[in-house]
Structure formats: structure tokens, C-alpha cells
Amino acid sequence: MKLLIVLTYYRPHTSGLTIYAERLAKAMVRRGHQVTVLTSHFQKDLPYDEVQDGVRIIRVPVAFRLSKGVIMPTFGWVASRLAVKHDAIQLHLPQFDAAGLALRGRLLKKPTIVTYHCDLLMPPGIISWMANQAVTFMNNLTAIWSHRIVTYTQDYAENSNYARRYLKKVEVIDPPVELPDVSEQEIRDYRNRNILSKSTPVIGMAARFATEKGVEVLLAALPKILDAYPNALVQFAGPYQNIIGEEEYFSRLWPLIQKYQEHNQWQFLGMLGPHKMALFYHNIDLLVLPSLNSTEAFGLVQIEAMLNGVPCIASNLPGVRQPVMRHSMGKVVPIGDSNALAEAAIDILKHRKQYQVDQEALKKQYSPDSLAEKYEILFKKIAEELK
Questions:
Q1: In 3D, which of 136, 175, 169, 168 has the Cα closest to residue 153?
Q2: 8 Å CB contact between 382 and 111
Q3: Each residue's pLDDT tens digit, 263-287
Q4: Which residues is 205 bridged to in the sheet?
Q5: Mean pLDDT, the chain, as a whole number?
Q6: Is 32 exposed, middle or buried (CB count within 10 Å of its CB: 0-12, 13-18, 19+)?
Q7: What is the pTM of this model?
Q8: Contact 40/378 with Cβ under 8 angstroms?
Q9: Apex CA 169: angle with CA 164 and CA 171, to 5°?
Q10: HSE toward the beta carbon, residue 199, CA cutoff 13 A
Q11: How confident is the model at residue 65 (pLDDT cuts 50, 70, 90)?
């Protein structure tokens, strides 16, 4: 099968959406499919056309940005050319340009699946509001013209302002999660480089530094956590500087973070590759996901942490609460409740051994190959319906 995968941002951009797309693309290649990714040329030093791990990546020139979106005048022409050459289309939403691909898939009778990652909530302002209205309109057209909509959980689909309108088209497929193996020596070396002592309780957060991630909730919880564990350390893994659209948010929280940094209670690790992320999980005692709204739909990092024996605390958001609820490996706390987050963190750090899971079963359930197989089955089912 020749598969065309379309999304606004692809790697090296870091988000749950881009990681999902990359893992699926690579898994499809491993299973013998020809995969092309169509995306934006969002970073000047990236090639317009290249092959990585067997996946061809075509990046369309960006004329200008509109909030977090990109305007690509030649996108339609490139999309039409590629849609004709491929057997199936997979679209990642939210994405302004997806509707055109969904229509092409419908007219060309190419099985077209939308993977819906999260609702779109734009920052305040008239430009953002206009962008939100435009993307929402186009996403609805995408849903109408596509053949199926994949979500991570039924919980999120039923509560999403978007997905619940199209429940008859919804298929639930677990997201892909994988991490490379690391040696015991590498784990020890990482701890010696990044953590003050063997007795330091480490609270991890793995995310982009973005408004919806709820970094301020963790910051507000820290005083109570530090009362119980004075030498506790927060390690933030992920990009945190010059995030598009998040500069003001970072500036607002920076003075408080700086105070914690001065007392060796907060570390920014920056963007980590898969190998270093595996080392990160092996050296934290707890992962927190204090997300604030429906732009977070699951939190792949929770499964990554659980695969390494690390319990999690998640906000009580549809979808986001599912990893903890499914696998009983952590706690769910009310959205934005820093006091509840602090209490949950203290309790888990105190009773960490109680929160464990069958890691091999978990690894199999969320493997990219398992995900790719389910997409294969769904594409074949749609192809039969179109005959």
C-alpha cells in the first residue's frame, strides 16, 4: 500500500501529534508499505524533500504564519499530485488544510482516515478567534468527507466538542508508544550527571512548555511537596524556549521557576531524543501531567513512564485520565487543583511500589506495530466498502 500521511508539523517539531505520526509512519514502512509524509516547511534549515528511516518527507513552503498555523499557497497543488499517486490517505487533526485532502480522497475513492488528536483552543485575540473559526469550519468539512475518524479513547470522543458530532464514524485505536532499551550503566551515568543525590525524589514533567500543559499548577504545588520532601527536584524534559505562540506564557512563569532553579529544585533538560528520554524515565520517581484543557487528549508520556515502572498523576480530563484509570498506576486529580496535585505526589512518593503494572503486556498493547496493524485492517475495510 502507498500511504500518504498529512499533518501541519512533522519532526523535528516535538508534540504528541508529531511523535504519533512519526511512529506510525515508521511502523508502516517496517510492515512493507510505501509511506510519504506531506507537511509544512516550518523551519528554514530543513530540506524540502528527504527520506528518513524509509519515510519520504515532502515539506511545502510557508508564505506566512497565522498564530500557530501556517499558510502554504502551493499546498493544494502538491496535495493533488500526491493524492493521485497513493492508495490511502491519513490526516492528522487539528489541521486547516485537511479538508481538501479529505475531499480528494472522497472523489478519488481513496480510503481516507482522520486521526483526531485534540480539540483546538486558540489564545485570546481577534486574529486567533478568526483562525479558530476557520480551522473549526475546515475540520468539520474534513469529518464529513473522510471515511473514518480515529481517536485514542471513547472517553475523549464522547466529550470532544468536535468528535462527539461524528461518533458513527469514530474508531478507537490505542496510540503508539515505544522507547529504546538502555543499560544499567547508562542509567547510573545519567543520574550522576543530572541528579544531586541518590536520595533525591525526582518529579518529572515531559511536554512542550505550553499554556495547556498547566506548568503553573505544578509550580503552585511545589511548596507543599517541598515541605514533605525538602530535597525534591523537578526535571522538565521538552522544549521550553521560543515556543511558537507561548513566549508570553514562559515569561510570566520564568521568575518563579528561576527561584526554584537557584535552590536546585528545578531543572530544564531541553528537548531529548528517544534514548535520553528512556534514561529520563528510568531516573524519575513520578511523572505529572497537570493539563488544563481538551487540547490534551491522552498524554503519550504517561504510557512511556509506566513502561519504565513510573507512576503518573493526571488531570481529570477526558482521555488524559484514561492511562491512569486503565492501568491503576497513579492518581487522577481535579483540573487545575494544585493542592490535590501536591497531596497525590506526596502519597505516591511515599508508596511508589504500590503503583506497578505488567510492563510486557503494556508494551505489546501500545506498540507501533500493533497500531499499524489496526490501521491496515481499517484501510482494507474501507477499501472493500468503496468497491
A1: 175
A2: yes
A3: 999 999 998 988 999 999 999 999 9
A4: 236
A5: 92
A6: exposed
A7: 0.84
A8: no
A9: 90
A10: 3
A11: confident
Q: What is the pLDDT of residue 196?
A: 67
- Interatomic CA distance for residues 54 and 250, integer angstroms: 37
Q: Lowest-confidence range among 125-129, 216-220, 310-314?
A: 125-129
Q: Which residue has the cell 488544563?
A: 292
Q: What pLDDT does 122 receive?
A: 62
Instruction: Pick the closest to residue 108 from 138, 77, 87 (CA basis).
Output: 87
3-state secondary structure the chain: CEEEEECCCCCCCCCHHHHHHHHHHHHHHHCCCEEEEEEECCCCCCCCEEEECCEEEEEECCCEEECCEEECCCHHHHHHHHHHHCCEEEEEECCCCHHHHHHHHHHHCCCEEEEECCCCCCCCCHHHHHHHHHHHHHHHHHHHHCCEEEECCHHHHHHCCCHHHHHHHEEECCCCCCCCCCCHHHHHHHHHHHCCCCCCCEEEEECCCCHHHCHHHHHHHHHHHHHHCCCCEEEEECCCCCCCCCHHHHHHHHHHHHHHHHCCCEEEEECCCHHHHHHHHHCCCEEEECCCCCCCCCCHHHHHHHHCCCCEEEECCCCCCHHHHHHCCEEEECCCCHHHHHHHHHHHHHCHHHCCCCHHHHHHHCCHHHHHHHHHHHHHHHHHHHC
Buried b or exposed e, range 305-334, using 16+ CB within 10 angstroms: bbbbbbbbbbbbbbbbbbbbebbebbbbbe
- Which residue, 186, 165, 190, is CA-closest to 93? 165
Q: How far is CA 170 from CA 8, 86, 165, 311, 354, in A?
A: 22, 23, 10, 30, 35
